[in-house]
Amino acid sequence: MMSRVLFSAQSVHHATPTALYADLDREFHFTFDPCPLRSAAHDGLARSWKGHRVFCNPPYGRGVGQWLAKSREPDVAVYLLPARTDTRWWHDYAMRADEIRFLRGRLRFGGHKGNAPFPSVVLVYSRPDLPPVTIFRNIPTP
After folding, report:
1. Closest CA to 107 of 44, 68, 57, 63
2. Alpha helices for the chain (secondary structure H)
3. Residues 6 or more apart from 15 whose CB is under 8 A from it?
4. The pTM is what?
5. pLDDT on residue 13
């Protein structure tokens, strides 16, 4: 019963918590969101991310790896994702991030009454000529 909830595909879109986005934006100064919630106006995977400081909270379905494949294209790419350490995309892309920030507790995504049934992580990728970052760090949930 519990695994059905954890891996449910009721929705693959989760609105980023406002306070978490504000904290990350203060740190990274985002210039581009390739997949804004409920916007079919553009295809963020088809657009170039080069020269941008990207925040990406992609749909949490089977296509996560496609979004992570673009992680080295911009100057900085910051992803909000479920911490699914048993998936292919985690081993192929997440473990190659410059920084992995495990979020303490469970996020409450915008529009939801309760907390997420899964833990979340922030992955940070940056150009090699930028200063190094911490490898693992827990950050409190807003």
Report:
1. 57
2. 2-6, 18-28, 64-68, 88-92
3. 37, 109, 110, 111
4. 0.80
5. 65
Q: What angle do CA 34, 71, 3 make, to 5 degrees?
A: 85
Cα dist from 45 to 13, 61, 130, 140, whole Å:
16, 15, 24, 30
Q: Are residues 141 and 106 in contact, defined by beta-carbon separation less than 8 angstroms? A: yes
- Rounded-to-integer distance, Cα 73 and Cα 12, Å: 24
- pLDDT over 70 at 74, yes or no: yes
74 sits in the region (left: phi over 0; alpha: psi -120 to 50; else beta) called beta
3-state secondary structure of 15: strand
Tell me which residue has tokens 């449910």: 8
Angle at 118 between CA 69 and CA 121, to 5 degrees: 45
Q: Tokens for 128, please give them.
A: 């090699």
* Six-digit token string for 54: 């990207």
Separation CA 112–CA 89 (nearest Å): 26
Q: What are phi and psi of 88, to 5 degrees?
A: -65, -45
Q: What are phi and psi of 23, to 5 degrees?
A: -65, -45
